[in-house]
UniProtKB/TrEMBL annotation:
InterPro entries: D-isomer_2-hydroxyacid_DH, D-isomer_2_OHA_DH_cat_dom, D-isomer_DH_NAD-bd, NAD(P)-bd_dom_sf. Coiled coil: none annotated. This is 2-hydroxyacid dehydrogenase. Keywords: NAD, Oxidoreductase. Residues 13-314 form the D-isomer specific 2-hydroxyacid dehydrogenase catalytic domain.
Length: 326
């Protein structure tokens, strides 16, 4: 079996966690092309049966690989992979859910606390010597006390965020397309309905055509002047210009952002806002969690070629046929 597996050509285009590469190299005939798809020869593309990658894969990228059976995406959000097109070609797509929930939820809470208690500004005050020269850091106008939190996207990560916020004694509500069974949080069937009922909105939804710019000026205004918005999901789900305007003119009080509209580019107008606490998409960025994601990414490819079905297929490709035996 190992000999047979060793003859299966797997492509790893673009930089990836070394754990994925090592795990795949132990089993398959792996070609690593650091520069990405542009540097993949047609001869190689004609042979490849599996791809493990973090880089985007458009329909045109996918169509370069006539024998491709599986795309193992590194990350739980797979909006950068055209999974519907892959499904239409009978190609399996996998992602890396669950293993990152806790680290990502930690960052959502950290951003919430940063935004409300102004910890980055307080630290800068200390580092600039102002504690000694000017006195204590000013009292913050905002507190976590008596807040009502709305979670937009009560999925795997959203529930991990909610569990943490329960421990803070906060009232929690949520909006999804459908209500979740067995959770003690109030469900709102519309995002605007949720925003009107809360003053703190945490977005954990995937980027899809439906969620694009769904957090817009109206939703932000509904949070009110003490409103706080945290985004740990995807930048594309927010109207970023409307968010900048709402932060600038006091429509809402503060924001904590891990994700942005056009990463890695963050507009100067957002960088200039003292009431936005911003970090460069670090939600899952610990060595511990990235190793777990890297292992799952590789194991999906291994399971496909050894067991005929991957560990974590994305919903769009659940109808894909099992592979022929190797
Ligand atoms: P998940 O379990 O699939 O949860 C997604 C949630 O969003 C579900 O509750 C879903 O509920 C809801 N949702 C989807 N489409 C919606 C819509 N049109 N309107 C309202 N609600 C909608 O995914 P997850 O594992 O929690 O991850 C969520 C997202 O977080 C990922 O897709 C990724 O983009 C992002 N993420 C970011 C980081 C980071 O580093 N910042 C790390 C991990 C994940 P319904 O299906 O009932 O609508």
């Amino acid at each position: 079996m190992t000999d047979t597996l060793k003859s299966i050509p797997i492509l790893v285009p673009g930089a990836i966690n070394p754990v994925t590469l090592d795990r795949l190299r132990a089993v398959f005939d792996v070609t690593y092309v650091e520069e990405g798809f542009g540097a993949v020869s047609d001869a190689l593309a004609s042979r490849v049966r599996g791809i493990a990658a973090i880089i985007p894969m458009s329909a045109a990228d996918i169509d370069r690989f006539p024998k491709l059976e599986i795309i193992a995406h590194f990350g739980v959000g797979y909006d950068s992979v055209d999974a519907r097109h892959a499904a239409s070609r009978g190609i399996m797509v996998t992602n890396t859910p669950e293993v990152l929930n806790e680290d990502v939820a930690d960052i959502a809470v950290a951003l919430l606390l940063n935004a409300i208690r102004q910890l980055p500004l307080a630290e800068q005050w200390l580092r600039d010597g102002k504690w000694a020269s000017k006195g204590p850091f000013p009292l913050t106008p905002l507190t976590l006390r008596e807040r009502r939190v709305g979670i937009y996207g009560l999925g795997r990560v959203g529930r991990a965020v909610a569990r943490r916020l329960e421990a803070f004694g906060l009232d929690i509500a949520y909006h999804n397309r459908s209500a979740v069974d067995g959770v003690p949080y109030q469900y709102y069937p519309t995002l605007i309905g949720l925003a009107e009922a809360v003053d703190t909105l945490i977005s954990v939804t995937p980027s899809t055509p439906e969620t694009a710019k769904s957090v817009d000026a109206k939703v932000l205004a509904a949070l009110g002047p003490k409103g706080v918005f945290v985004n740990i999901g995807r930048g594309a789900t927010v109207d970023q210009d409307a968010l900048i305007e709402a932060l600038r003119d006091g429509t809402i009080a503060a924001a904590g952002l891990d994700v942005f509209a056009n990463e890695p580019h963050v507009p100067q107008s957002l960088l200039d806002l003292p009431n936005a606490t911003i970090v460069p998409h670090v939600g899952s960025a610990t060595e511990y969690t990235r190793a777990a994601m890297a292992t799952l990414c590789a194991e999906n490819v291994i399971a496909w070629f050894t067991e005929g079905w991957p560990k974590t297929p994305v919903p769009e490709t659940l109808g894909v046929e099992r592979p022929r035996t190797n």
